[in-house]
Amino acid sequence: MSSAAPAIAPATSDLAALKALVTDDMARVNTLILEQAKSDIPLISDLASHLIAAGGKRLRPCLTIAAATLCGYVGDRHIRLAASVEFIHTATLLHDDVVDDSKLRRGEATANALWGNKSSVLVGDFLLSRAFQLMVADGSLDVLKVLSDAAGIISAGEVHQLTVSHDLSITEAVYEQVISAKTAALFAAACELGPLVSGQLQWRERMRDYGQALGMAFQLADDALDYMADEDALGKAIGDDFRDGKVTLPVLLAYHQGAESERQFWQNVLEGDDAISDAALSEAKRLLAQHQSCEATLQRAQDYAAKAIALLAPFPDTAAKAALIEAAEFSYRRAF
Amino acid sequence: MSSAAPAIAPATSDLAALKALVTDDMARVNTLILEQAKSDIPLISDLASHLIAAGGKRLRPCLTIAAATLCGYVGDRHIRLAASVEFIHTATLLHDDVVDDSKLRRGEATANALWGNKSSVLVGDFLLSRAFQLMVADGSLDVLKVLSDAAGIISAGEVHQLTVSHDLSITEAVYEQVISAKTAALFAAACELGPLVSGQLQWRERMRDYGQALGMAFQLADDALDYMADEDALGKAIGDDFRDGKVTLPVLLAYHQGAESERQFWQNVLEGDDAISDAALSEAKRLLAQHQSCEATLQRAQDYAAKAIALLAPFPDTAAKAALIEAAEFSYRRAF
Q: Which CATH architecture group holds B16-318+325-331?
């Protein structure tokens, strides 16, 4: 990667076109999510309500709705499938926060901080089961294959990430494998469901590729934002990845471009067993700025976003296409 | 419950008839399990191999094979479905051991003791995804419904158990709800797959009920054995449930039959926050013996086993029927 990537303008979009496109359908998705997360066991309902209230962008189910709309879908199935996608994502988040011991997500206390790790593990399992029950109710084996394969890839990617954390010897290719599995696979599946549910099978691979590229852009930007973002806007603590010893692209770039003394610094803090101090985070941010590593990471995110947008070329200019272009632009321009 | 339950003879069976019935099919199930647990990520393969080597009785997939044989099934689908059942069970065990912080299972160090909780959470997710991928490959929505519903019930039951641990005010009915969900639901599903895969749909409900009753007997016996068994034979530490603050039937019976001073003892140790001492475990065992609470629990297990056996009455006397009767007898007579 070039170390002289151009500065990228701050977020210019709040996903207005996407939100406008999916508002009515997402209201139904949210109703279904609330209904399906209910249980006779109060802890399940409480924890699920907390997650649902915390909300977030719900980008993945929005993508399923938008991709279905792009393919001219008329019907109700996309509502249930979008909810299923969100349940898979939420289950992953719950287990992620246990693994990372995160205290804050989207500006709210995490479920594991409030209810403990045990509850997060078990309620995550419950939500994953719900996702599959929703797919079974939909009744399409093709859909079940897309989403069960995605769930397998995601969990393998999470394990992969765990095994390479604290490891500065990984290549950029390994880093990309990890984020492709842990993040882009669900974006890809969410988008593939659009043509699938519409019976527009000629667009399956293209929309899957769109989602895959968008997911890569999204995660690359996420990894840059971990060192750059405004803490209030990001809704999580700055430097979380660093404190967890995660070796993300900004770090890899700065590490490889740094002098021997800099590499020693990264090794000491990321490969050591000691808790990482605020002073170390400040030094890390100084080195990342010096090598413009976050800018280069955002540039790579922009490249993936451009690839995603190019894949939309054959579709007529509709509100759905505009919304999906906007989502790709947003992926690397966002401040949160 | 009667407090003067008859003593139950020690294990007279090592499941010889069941094992003989399923030997060939289970060899194929084990090969498939090994193959499906492989991954490019070494940690997944290592951890899965550890679980597979630890093995255990593999009772649930054996039940699927035996129930299919009982219904005259000819074909290969039961192999894949039995593997899927075992993957669901293994994923549950992995997450259970994280939640209970168990160090020993089936006489071996648990995965979380060896690889840490993070790995156990994520590899559990991977195995659950694999279970669904195997079902999707099988291609029956009926099978997917049976097993996704079971997975939902199990995880809700695990959460329920977590919320009522340390709580001596629960009724016996609540205890039975918990074990019905966390244990019997998968036994029921494993057995229902037999008639389902065989197209003998008239036996679905009966075999489901058989599995449900067998699962209740199995868990009731497990909860008694936690205070009675030979540690070497059981393959886990005696008193694990007690140390985890789990309020199981033996405890509930002794608690309700005990004098005020005894109830105070149970409250102090199970509802308190302190670590539970060996002396407390000895006292608990003394009180359980005094009230014959484990014997009464085993009697209830025997009642469920009798119910399971009665459900097999309409089937002709075959080796499969004998094996399933044996499994029910084994459920409460076993020493491990």
A: Orthogonal Bundle (1.10)
